[in-house]
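Entry for the shared binder. Reason: the reviewer on the internal report wants the predicted structure included alongside the sequence.
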Amino acid sequence: MAPLPDAKPPAAGVIPRRLCFFNGGFLWNHRLRRILALAGHDLVPGWPRAEDGVVVWGQSPYAARGEAVAARCGVPVVRIEDALLRSVRPGRAGDAPLGLLIDPFGVHFDGRGLSVIEHHLMTNPLDDSNLLARAKAGMARIRANDLSKYNIHRPELAPPEPGYVLVVDQTLGDASVTASGADAARFAEMLLTAQEDHPQARIVIKTHPETAMGLRKGHFTAPALPERVTLCADAVSPWALLEGAIAVYTVSSQLGFEAILAGHRPHVFGQPFYAGWGLSVDHFPLPRRNRRLTRAQLFAAAMILAPTWYDPCRDRLCSFEEALDQLDAEVRSFREDRDGHVALGMRMWKRGRLQAVFGRETPLRFVTSPQKAVDLAQKSGRGLLVWAGKAPAGLSLTSGPVRRVEDGFLRSRGLGAALVPPLSLVTDDLGIYYDPAQESRLERLILSPLPEGASLRAARLRERLVALGLSKYNLTGALPDVPQGWRILVPGQVEDDASVLAGGGTVRSNLALLQAVRAAHPEAVIIYKPHPDVEAGLRPGAVAPGELAGLADVVAHHADPVALILACDAVWTMTSLLGFEALIRGKPVTCLGAPFYAGWGLTHDLGPVPERRLRRPDGQPQPRPTLEALIHAALIAYPRYYDPISRRPCPPEVAIERLAQGDIPHPGLGNRLLAKLQGRFASHARFWRQ
């Protein structure tokens, strides 16, 4: 193998502030320039000064220009590579990276010299318990959410029957291959070794994603393969492939790293960063790598310590976990929307936001007729989105999923009735969260075991919500004077709301709710908060002042709901989301209906709780989820969030910041005028709500 280019080594890995470049990619690649700028580096074209460095992209064909200049001027070379969790699509398909390896030593796939990852692996004690806990949680979450460097695979595709040997192909001429001194002969040797080691097993060769996309050639083609060797070019999940493999063979692919994380000890025919630490079978070992590490230590160095991660929504550098949050949101959006949707039952004013959220990959097709929607979806292979309250009975497809759509639980600063678009939406392929008559995707998520680290994330989200005083609509208002005593908050609801019609028990009106509370607590201070849509005269549910006498001690008109929750000792409700918001704030909640948060042992339930929430099909009691599990399901796993600033999918943490700061574009003029008109004609809501 040829030696590394002769350039001045950096002093203890210090990267100069000013970096000179000789490759046009550094000029037009906005994301790359932005990450480097946030990391404290100025990118400039031209000849370096004595205190400068020269920046190049890895070991690309154009890197030689910068290397030659650096050697001539006696300044260090800084090499840039994508971080190991990059994006949805490969860079050649147009996606920008979520992180970079800014390497003052070398590149991670080239064992001829040190790299920033290897530097951490060799010099860092890697014994910090917090760091290793983060690594274990990161490994678990990446695997649970089926994430990889690129994420164009289809998790729904079945891998080959288990019991095969997995051989990993790479692209011809890739720098990670040539840096290991590998060529077509090395790949042929690897395949032959796999056959000799496993004479009876099937051999499956995994094609590189860029080869499957037609962007670059690989080393193996189907016609040239020997007996019992097959090519897997389908977009199968790498984790599913690793799950079914009995052994893994690679030259330097990142899939070898993921094989280690999945519990394999891969055979490595190159010298990538993950070889040489006792976690792989190294056919070309590096004597200097003689430290024995755990998977968590390897992960901590490669994914947490070495990369520089970037948050594209908040336009700042971020932690590994925040980058993972963002990638998770973008991958979920891509997977659910890649085949496109036909949208049914969507009101006109909502369509712009729905298009922005669900139409990023393939524009939505809006249809008003259920039969036309089904026919178009079947013909085009799209899924079907339908507003939950507009879904006809028996709606189904044979070609794709039917997902019911509703607003999420952290929605906006302002009411939907005021035509304020949502920051979060939920899609449910089983039912819908407010209808206890059938299982919903939310119910299934509530009962799913939490992956490692998820409970801590939910707890932090809860703390943030409480500290910032956030709720679904984030309405402001004065807190009325309330008498001393045991205070019970009774949130009024829209009486024809789907959650009341579907999830209510025997009590289905605000008057009946107040009567039930007063009968149960004759001495309590009852504070009644009318629903904002009812107060505006837009929806039914008003209780006449004369009927309120003796039932409510205080009627909190236009009051801040969060302030009311904090001022009260308990909450009684039919199905209001204020019950969930009260649980988040540690208040006891009594439910007379069956909202999504009832029936799990976290509320006092007087309504008809579905049996499936209490017992499994075999009659055994259902496990009781924690409050953190409920929060994780309802606010993290179930909704999809949209950042109106960056116009990207985003995690709930970003949405919370937007809601707290009010950093949200206002509804357009058309929506504001329409909102005023609907207020003027509130008594004729049956017309404008069509």
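Summary line for the report: Residues 16 and 293 are 31 Å apart (CA to CA).
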